[in-house]
Protein: Short-chain dehydrogenase
Organism: Dyadobacter endophyticus
Amino acid sequence: MAETIKTALITGGSRGIGYGIAEALIRDGIYVAITSRSQQNADEAALALNKIRAGHALAIESDVRNLESQEKAVQTVLDQWGRLDYLIANAGVGHFAPIHELSAELWQETIDINLTGVFFSAKASIAALTESKGYFINIASLAGTNFFANGTAYNASKFGLVGFSQAMMLDVRNAGVKVTTIMPGSVATEFNNHEPSDKDAWKIQPEDIGQIVSDLIKMPARTLPSKIEVRPTTPK
Ligand code: NDP
């Protein structure tokens, strides 16, 4: 009998947390498609990921702000591997400014990518995840529960996402689809044009979030850790 494979689609897997999750899942033997707004960025990441396990990474150009583009990404996974087991809604941006300086454009981009983009990820994947009794994992943020100055757009997007994600969990769990909201604190990535350096050693590392996702999908089917806060142990 043919071995059943498992597959994942990670939005925004070209670098940072999404890439760390892709590495962890590929090490687990899962077939992983990553998306980016740029085919080149996605291709470069997939090239590196395929060195872990040849043929396990697939690069897809897809902008989470576009529902049709996300539907095509899901269809590409189904065409390639025949099933979708895990959707990791990770793509996100951070624009931080006091309210009197925050432009309408940056407000809109933050909401469109961080909140509406996840709704579109859910719309695009829920039929396939229902079929596979799969898992939808959101990368929200501690900014979805802790507000701060300069955070109006980011806080609004992540508070919204935490509410969205938990309501979605209630909608789909009886159909056998799990939903988990992961809420990290500071992770060492290039988020918000940050340049990673040795000074980031105290932060959560992308592979640590990868380990959490890897552990979540190994939980018994009966048990659902629905919301997870993750902090650096010794914040600087
Ligand atoms: P990075 O900036 O390092 O990576 C962001 C990823 O999202 C890239 O792969 C980028 O790809 C992709 N992306 C951005 N916009 C879009 C879009 N419209 N469509 C598709 N892909 C897109 O950030 P992180 O890895 O740090 O962030 C990942 C998630 O984690 C975000 O949701 C962020 O809010 C959240 N988070 C981050 C924390 C941190 O401290 N770093 C803490 C808590 C949560 P490309 O540019 O190639 O299109």
Remarks:
- Residues 11-18, 35-38, 41, 63-65, 90-94, 113, 139, 141, 184, 186-187, 189-191 surround NDP (CB under 6 Å).
- The mean pLDDT is 97.
